């Protein structure tokens, strides 16, 4: 009997007897992952809402994992590996930005049908997001309070708050490469919000004026700008998606909602790298 045109024969080498062997599902713990969608209403679109946010948490976890690796790479002067993982973070952020477009298919009326079941739960309480922001340099001790109820998470965020961020490590690289960086920038309290410094601006200006001479630092600068740009796109799409779905309602976590998210657009991780464009 002739096989259908679109029939694909199962290759004999494919493993079919998987008893007592590691399977794809076991390796990825898919029973736990795919069983983690606990609906609190009978509304169809709640599944979309949960999966988008769960998937986002995984991407944010990976982004934080890669930034921690980049910090270690730069401390070890391994620029090549740092470039690789920073480039990956940019693509992760692009992926996260795209996910808001999927969530935008949730209409205001359909969201309101199950929104009250969230109680005070909010993305503002995301540990992976807070960790990523701290790693990139947006430090704020007050933001720890929302995580105080979770001892393990609170402890990890306290650690990251007091350690140098990616940009702090980059600035030390500038100093070790011979640029005159103010000592206060190298000895600062890393738990405090970063403030732009003229000596750092001047170092970037010299690097951008002589990119061939300082190619690794020049390339690093552009990789950081990629992160800044991708993160801002993610923030903007987040804000616009929230505005589309709930308008100017308060957030479930108690924030002012869109107004609060708009303020985040004014926060820069690497301010001198944006300001240096004006100086060139």
Number of helices: 13
Strand and helix order: HHHHHHHHHHHHH
The total strand number stands at: 0
Class of secondary structure makeup? mainly alpha
Percent helix: 55-70%
Low-confidence segments, given as residue ranges, are none
Strand content: under 5%
Q: Biggest sheet, in brief?
A: none
Features:
280 residues, mainly alpha, 13 helices
What does this structure look like?
The chain has 280 residues and is an all-alpha fold. Helices cover 60% and strands 0% of the residues. It contains 13 helices and no strands. Helix 3 (46-75) packs antiparallel against helix 4. The chain is globular, with a radius of gyration of 23 Å. The model has no long low-confidence stretch (mean pLDDT 95).
Write the layout of secondary structure elements.
Blueprint: H1 24-28, H2 30-34, H3 46-75, H4 79-103, H5 108-112, H6 127-136, H7 151-162, H8 166-176, H9 183-186, H10 198-209, H11 215-246, H12 258-264, H13 271-279
Concise account of the structure shown:
The chain has helices at 24-28, 30-34, 46-75, 79-103, 108-112, 127-136, 151-162, 166-176, 183-186, 198-209, 215-246, 258-264, 271-279. With 280 residues, the protein is an all-alpha fold.
């Amino acid at each position: 009997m002739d096989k259908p045109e679109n029939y694909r024969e199962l290759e004999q080498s494919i493993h079919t007897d998987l008893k007592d062997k590691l399977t794809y599902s076991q390796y990825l713990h898919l029973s736990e992952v795919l069983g983690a969608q606990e609906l609190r209403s009978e509304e169809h679109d709640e599944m979309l809402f949960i999966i988008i946010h769960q998937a986002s948490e995984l991407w944010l976890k990976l982004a934080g994992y890669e930034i921690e690796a980049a910090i270690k790479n730069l401390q070890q002067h391994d620029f090549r590996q740092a470039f690789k993982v920073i480039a990956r973070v940019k693509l992760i952020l692009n992926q996260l930005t795209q996910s808001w477009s999927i969530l935008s298919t949730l209409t205001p009326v359909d969201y309101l049908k199950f929104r009250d079941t969230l109680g005070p739960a909010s993305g503002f309480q995301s540990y992976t997001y807070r960790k990523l922001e701290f790693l990139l340099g947006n430090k704020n001790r007050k933001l720890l309070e929302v995580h105080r109820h979770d001892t393990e998470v609170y402890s990890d965020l306290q650690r990251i708050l007091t350690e140098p961020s990616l940009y702090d490590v980059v600035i030390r690289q500038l100093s070790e490469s011979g640029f005159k960086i103010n000592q206060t920038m190298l000895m600062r309290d890393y738990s405090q919000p970063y403030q732009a410094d003229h000596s750092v601006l001047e170092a970037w200006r010299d690097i951008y004026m002589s990119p061939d001479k300082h190619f690794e630092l020049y390339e690093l600068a552009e990789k950081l700008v990629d992160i800044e740009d991708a993160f801002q796109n993610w923030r903007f799409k987040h804000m616009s998606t929230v505005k589309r779905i709930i308008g100017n309602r308060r957030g479930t976590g108690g924030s002012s909602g869109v107004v609060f998210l708009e303020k985040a657009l004014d926060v820069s991780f690497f301010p001198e790298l944006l300001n240096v464009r004006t100086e060139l």
